[in-house]
Every structure is written in C-alpha cells, then in structure tokens.
Queue: 2 jobs
Job 1
Amino acid sequence: MSQARIIDGKAFAQRLRDRLSLQVAALGEAHGLQPGLAVVLVGENPASQVYVRNKGQATVASGMRSFEHRLPDTTDQRTLIDLVERLNRDPAVNGILVQLPLPPQIDPAAVIAAIDPDKDVDGFHVENAGRLALGLPGLVPCTPLGCMMLLNDVLGDDLSGRRALVLGRSSIVGKPMASLLLAASCTVTTAHSRTRDLADECRRADILVAAVGRPEMVRGDWIKPGATVIDVGINRVPSLDPLAASEGRTRLVGDVAFAEAARVAGAITPVPGGVGPMTIACLLLNTLTATCRQNG
Ligand code: GUN
C-alpha cells in the first residue's frame, strides 16, 4: 500500500520564520526600521486568547514589535473603531489585526473597513479582497497564502492547468484560496454545503483544499490517487479513548479523514502540524511586506 508524502508545515513555517528574522534584522541595520504588529482582542474567547498570545510571541521572536490591546467583552463598536483609527495613525504600527470573532454588538465588516488597507495584514479589507480578485498586488489573507506556499513547495512553482477544488467559500479562506489558485492558472472549482455530488467533484481534483470546519468530512475514497491534499480544518473532537473522552479530553482533527486519505493522496498536510503553523508565519511575512511598502 502506498503512503502519501506528509507535508511538514511546522518545519516549513519554522524555516520561513528564520528567514524573516534575518530580514527583520537586516531592515533594522540598513534603515533603522523595526516592523510593529498590533493585535486587538475583544472579550475572553478562550481560543482567541491562545491565538493572540501565540501571535504576540511569534512577533517578538522574529525581532518585530508586538502591541497587544485587550478590550472588555462589553466594548462598543465606536470605541473599537476609535482604537483602530489611532493604530492607523501610529507610525510604530505597520500591521493591524483585529481578532475574530467579535462580540455580537460589533459589526466585523465595519471594523475591518476602518483598518488602513496598507496595514491590513489579515488581507480582509475590501480593498485587499478586491485587489486579490483582480490579480493586483495587495495583502493576501494569511491562511490561503500559507497553503499556496506549501503547494508550491510540493508541486513546484508552475501549477498551471491543474484541477483544483476548494471546499468552503468563506471570506477568510475559501474565496481568497480560489483566487490564488486561479491566479496560478489552475482550473478552479469552489464547492460548498449546497454542492451536488461533492465526492465526485473532489475525485476530479489534482489539488484539494478543505476548509469547511467539519471534522473528517472528506473520506479517503473522495480523493484522486496521487492528489495533493491541503487540510485547513482544525476541529476539536472527543478523545478516541472512551475513558479519556468521559473526562472531557479532546483531540484535534482536520476536515479530511487523514489515515484514509494518506493511503490515496500523493501528498497531504497533517492536523496539527500542517497549515496551522503557516498562518502565523504568513502573518509575520505580511507585516514585513506592509512595513517595506509603507517605507517605499
Ligand atoms: N480568527 C480566526 N482566524 C483568524 C484570522 O486569521 N484573523 C483574525 N483576525 N481572526 C481570526
């Protein structure tokens, strides 16, 4: 039985972060610049707290400045937008990230619209989304950018003509991922919860990117033999051991049934250790890119 190449996103992300650290140091020596990333967290969502802490630690480890802003759950939209506008004007801040989700009294679209597009290191502002859709340079959302880097590492720089299926149509992953694959001259299909004959659609794909947030939804027999599978899902499910599960212990799984898929695919990302570490590395990359563009 053949076994897919396991794509080591963790090691790839570490190499990228090492290169970025060298570039940050060189930018300081040559131009006296130190990139700064501001991360804003509203409320106490436990997963968001972990993400924000990890982002801050990675920022400092790369030699950049980290500015963390924690606001209470009861914060109103005006107060948050006032903070974003202050960060827009602050020359020490080159990148701004407002952690999602936001509490229900705040409209995320209004907050994202308030971020200076040149500091929008998430790539969520309509200007950056529009630029990506039109194939113009801009800031690209971190997770799809990381997925493309892994695909280029496995398959080489030329993806032209390959059939790519993106499962999921979110603004954070699915839509920008489809735009990047199209810009790379793939034949792109976007599938979602209303797609008919989903397994057949998947079976046609040379490149399958799963980003639906449904644990192990993509089965081994949905995969074309030799395909490259990128699993963006991070789903927490009960532990396999019934005793551990009864104690509330959990494990992380992707949107793809990994063991089954690895018997069919040519290459596949694991969960954890695949796409996840790339997202933070690409956030640092975007912060460095934004700093360079802001300084000509
Ligand atoms: N919440 C989950 N993923 C993300 C992300 O990539 N950016 C932001 N701002 N919030 C998130």
Job 2
Amino acid sequence: MDVVVVGAGSLGSLLGGLLARAHDVTLVGRAPHVERVRERGLRVTGTVETTVFPDARTAVPASADLALVTVKAYDTGAAAAALAETALDAVCSLQNGLGNERTLADALDAAVLAGTCTYGARLVAPGEVACTGVGEVVLGAREGGPSETADRVGRAFADADLVTSVAEDMPRRLWEKLAVNAGINAPTALARIHNGALLDDEAGTVMRTATREVAAAARSEGFDLSDDTAVRAVESVASATADNRSSMLQDVEKSRRTEVDSINGVVAGPDAPVNSTLTALLRAWEREQGLRE
Ligand code: KPL
C-alpha cells in the first residue's frame, strides 16, 4: 500500500516508520526532521528498534492509497486543504479531539476512517523517533458500521506488524478517547507532571471529574458511555502510560499551542465546570505566550 503520513511529528513518524517495514511510505512534516529522514533514514528506537527509509518531504504527493492524518486537531483544516489535490482511496484520522473526520470528509473525495492509537511516541531528534510503548491502533468507518476500506487498511497495518483491530463503533470510541484525553492531557500540562502522577488522590479527583463530565456529554449526544467505563479507561491509560509526558505537556514544554479547544473545550460550559476551568487556564497560558488572540 502507498501511504502518506500527513503530520510527521512524534506519532506520525512512529506509525509511518513502522508501516515502512511493509509499505511505501511518504512522511510529510517539517524541516529539519524530514531532511534528516531523507538523508539518513528514520531511526525508530525504544520498545521497537528499526531503521527505515521512507520518502520524506514538506508537501503532500500527487497520489496515495491512504493518507494517515496525524496533525494537531487545529491543523486538520490545513491538512485537508493540502490533500485536496491528492488522488486518494482513503483517509484515516489518528488525532485527538472530535470533528476531525468531518473536516476531512467535507473537503476530500475519499473514504474517511476514524482511528485511535495507544502507541507511545516521542521525537528524540531530527530523524529519530522513540517508541515509548507498544499499544494498539483501532480503526473503522467514521460513521460506525462495517467498512471494506477499514478492513483493507486494518490488514495493511497488520502486515507491517502494527497491533491493529477494526471496530464498528468508532463514534463511541472517539468519545471514550476524548474522555481519557480530557482527564489526562490538560491536568498534566498545567501541573507539569507525568501521566502516572494523576493516580495520586488529589490530582486523581481532577482527572476523574473531567472524564466523568465528558462521559455525561457523550450520553447527552446518545452514546453509551457510562461514568464507570470512562473512569476505568482513564485510570488504565494513566497507569499504562505512567512514565509518559502527555502530548499536551510536550506542547506546553515547547511553548506550542495546545489542543485544549478540541479536547476539554468541546464540553466546556455550565454542565462541565472542571473542563471549563482547565480550558480557561490553558487558553490564558496560550494568550500569555502569544499563541492565541
Ligand atoms: O493520547 C494521549 C496524549 O498524550 O495525547 C494519552 C493517551 C493521554 C497518553 O499520554
């Protein structure tokens, strides 16, 4: 399969690197990372060790079988615009937040899949990405239900030894992922702590309450996500990724804009006071850094 990864940051580079073991991969990202990959290949270190030689560039190619979109949620519109001239069979969003698939589907003439990914990734240096934990990719039709495209993409991922499964309930899973990200990302970013520190009593209360508020919002939209399921999911991710720094903490440490609008901001309002507080604090930090109006 011919795969273009749009957003060769940490997760995009890791997935692209692993897929390059079995497929033709093009990484689209920023210099100097893509230059280094073009010159010397991509080193994957950590839990999985390999060096692969994908194509790497700053602009999308003219065609591909699959576009894997791993850009930050606030860049989805730009990724969709960049892909508008690319001939594609399928697009798969592996991003944080809700609504990315809709943005892609509105702009592109290709089957759009939704996915979640629990592989841990960290960009160590230009040309090198660390796999900080083997997880799982789950993908499926963005509206839910069976999808031949999802089956085909799932098989292609499995051919590259990525732990992958195909699911028919992606909309509910995206809400569950949102509940997990809402509980972990903003609290770790604001307190500058590893994910595992949220398992302590005080911080754990913030994590669990933010997660419960998202579960309630999911139920109000008709999705079957109980408080217990959401809290068990967030506790299990915080514990499995205890030594990791969340993507939002990494953004804050690099003084980059965060995805708070697409995570906690999605449910912020009178019924979600903890998510509203987390959103307000991160937006205030972004403003002070000159990252937003
Ligand atoms: O997806 C993540 C992120 O950091 O964005 C979690 C699951 C919270 C792992 O750190």
